[in-house]
Amino acid sequence: MAIRISDIAAEEALLDVEAIRADFPILDLVRNGNPLVYLDNGATSQTPRCVMDAIEHYYAARNANVHRGVHYLSQAATHDFEEARKKAGRFIGTPLACEVIFTRGTTEAINLVAQSYGRTHVGAGDEVLISYMEHHSNIVPWQMLCEEKGAHLKVIPINDAGELDMDAFERLLNERTKIVAVTHVSNALGTITPIKEIIRIAHSAGVPVLLDGAQAIPHMPINVYELGCDFYAFSAHKMYGPTGMGVLYGKARLLDAMPPWQGGGDMIMSVTFEKTTYNTLPYKFEAGTPNIEGAIALGAAVDYLERLGMNAIAAHEHQLLTYATRALQEVPGLTIIGTAKEKAAVISFVLESAHPHDIGQLLDDAGIAVRAGHHCAQPVMQRFGIPATTRASLALYNTREEIDALVAALHNVNKVFG
Ligand code: PMP
Asked: Does 12 score more than 50 pLDDT?
């Protein structure tokens, strides 16, 4: 669904944040005498007790390999693993479990598409179209593919607000373009890209679209069918699930026609030295023993988010983003990098008085965790002519009081360095 977060925010959907915070044991930590203020959710989100419980339950009552054993434990583990696949599919709007490929994360999902779809469809002189605001994991796999094939990587420019130049996009799209791969939400700028429009334009030229959903998935409801995207990649650890776990959604028709990527156990139907026949979807793309507990824990994270409601989460975070944006603008010498009209709850900024790494250090002393650096998006930094930013990325458990603490600590940075 191409929702506008600002529209959702108009709904009276609010979260009981105090109750939610009690679900996250880590939020009780104290650092240097200050309560932990965790504002690095874009890097990884914290984990609710129910997700930890799912992992413990797996090892305490289910631990066995999946798809193999005839014994009880293996069948129970397989059942829970496949239920998790259905939950992950439901969460992004596909009823087809075969369209949900488990991966190590967004990075592996994008590499899978580049290596399988890309190597089949991209040849010498062809073009792959990405944008200026991609994370390195949606740049480098395509660059590697282009180098191997003698193809060209083309880049959609962005404006000073950090929005895609859609006229340039239409100009760049041509008969040599074999795939468009863009982010749904920029991790460095917070921009929500106009994906419905991107998909409409790309499809009218017959070009498939991959969306990097790593930063969108925790912030808003996603429905891949309503979007019509061809591939959607996301990571569990950015949506309150475990690390080392992610999903590649792909249209069954496309996945079916793609060659396998990695070879090994589980992805085969039969093997002889002369010939191997491959398994059906989704197993064709899941060679070897999968991250079983990771999948089950991802399923628990989906249950948790669905209980709270993605609309309510989006509304809460939008209110927080508006509050934080106003409050940060009051800090002398602070400039927000990324001022797109449609933004998720990610705020990058620079401060005249101090380098982002020094800011990050001083904030850490005050118990506030933010990100300082190029956020694996060096071309974005180059575009804005800066080496790095400080980034506060918000989550469903963050509060206005935590924003106030951030602002107070930034005033202190100005005092120390000013
Ligand atoms: N894309 C974006 C937009 C991201 O923010 C990230 C993680 N920072 C990734 C891709 C890569 O995700 P992962 O490291 O979980 O594979």
From this structure: no
**Strand boundaries in 18-60, DSSP class E:** 30-31, 34-35, 37-38
Q: Where is the domain boundary, 306, 328, 358?
A: 306
Question: In angstroms, rounded to a whole number, what is the distance separating the alpha carbons of residues 93 and 198?
Answer: 19
Rounded Cα–Cα distance for residues 32 and 236 (Å)? 30
DSSP string, 146-212: HHHHT-EEEEE-B-TTS-B-HHHHHHH--TTEEEEEEESB-TTT-BBP-HHHHHHHHHHTT--EEEE
From the CA of 65, how far away is ligand 1's center (Å)?
Answer: 28
- C-beta of residue 351 within 8 angstroms of C-beta of residue 410: yes
Within 62-194, residue ranges assigned H as helices are: 72-92, 106-113, 119-121, 140-149, 166-172
Atom of ligand 1 nearest to the CA of 235: 15
Q: Which two tokens stand for residue 47?
A: 């984990």
> What's the CATH number where 330 sits?
3.90.1150.10
Alpha carbon distance 304, 398 (integer Å): 17
Catalytic residue IDs = 376
Q: Is 314 helix (H, G, I), strand (E, B) or coil?
A: helix
Residue whose token pair is 């620079």: 350
Find the domain containing 411 and state its range.
5-40+309-417
Round to whole Å and give the CA distance between 268 and 288: 10
When pLDDT is cut at 50, 70 and 90, the band that residue 7 belongs to is low
pLDDT of 1 reads 40
| Number of domains forming the structure of the chain | 2
Q: How many C-beta atoms surround the C-beta of residue 217 within 10 A?
A: 26
Q: Could you tell me the pTM of the whole model? A: 0.97
Residue 389 Cβ < 6 Å to ligand 1: no
Contacts 24+ apart (CB under 8 A), 271-276: none
Tell me the H-state helices in 66-134.
Answer: 72-92, 106-113, 119-121
Domain CATH for 280 = 3.40.640.10
Does position 175 have pLDDT exceeding 60, yes or no? yes
Mutation test residue for ligand 1: of 192, 195, 376, the one with most atoms within 8 Å of CB: 376
